[in-house]
Design a protein that fits this description.
Layout: H1 7-16, E1 23-27, H2 33-39, E2 46-51, H3 54-63, H4 65-70, E3 73-77, E4 90-96, H5 105-115, E5 116-127, H6 131-147, E6 150-158, E7 165-172
Parallel strand pairs: 1-2, 1-4, 2-3, 4-5
Antiparallel strand pairs: 5-7, 6-7
Helix pairs in contact: 1-2
Length: 174
């Protein structure tokens, strides 16, 4: 039986368009649905997924145990602002429906800027119950990104009405 995957995850992975050798970081991975989709596209690449919730990380690791065993996926129970990845850098960092750049904007930006490769990109995906709320959150995120060392490269949308999804793509201002 094929698992039913929400449209937001399929669109996010399509938008990310991971190369087989990409190094990715997912912030707020929940149950690891996006990781499952991405790992199918990786050969030499890897994905690290973090979430504040240990129970979500446990579920995500169980869902992706084959990818963990193969060395393509790693899971960590940690908040972004507390994460320590040493010298590891990522080509793409993404979050789907995660409240970034609100309470800890400066600290989160500092961590993300440190984690991205010089040509790396941050992808912030969001979906809200109303188009007006999606628009307001998109504007807030763009402003927060630009205030904290990022250049907004692109804003994309898919769907319509209550199912509108938005992605902000940003890169380091270097």
């Amino acid at each position: 039986m094929t698992e039913r995957v929400a449209e937001r995850f399929r669109w996010a992975v399509e938008t990310l368009d991971p190369a087989p050798s990409d190094r990715l970081l997912e912030v707020g991975c929940g149950q690891g649905v996006a990781v499952s989709l991405i790992c199918r596209m990786l050969s030499a690449g890897t994905i690290v997924a973090i979430d504040r919730s240990k129970s979500m990380i446990d579920r995500a690791a169980r869902r992706n145990r084959e990818h963990v065993r193969e060395g393509n996926a790693t899971f960590k129970a940690v908040a972004l602002e507390d994460a320590d990845f040493g010298n590891e850098r990522f080509d793409k960092v993404f979050a789907i429906n995660v409240r970034l750049f609100r309470a800890e904007a400066a600290r989160e930006a500092e961590v993300l800027l440190h984690l991205l490769t010089p040509k790396g990109a941050l992808y912030l995906f969001q979906q809200h119950p109303s188009t007006s709320r999606t628009r307001a959150v998109t504007d807030e995120l763009k402003t927060a990104l630009e205030r904290n060392g990022f250049i907004v490269r692109k804003v994309m949308s898919a769907g319509a009405g209550a199912s509108t999804m938005t992605c902000i793509v940003a890169g380091p201002h270097r």
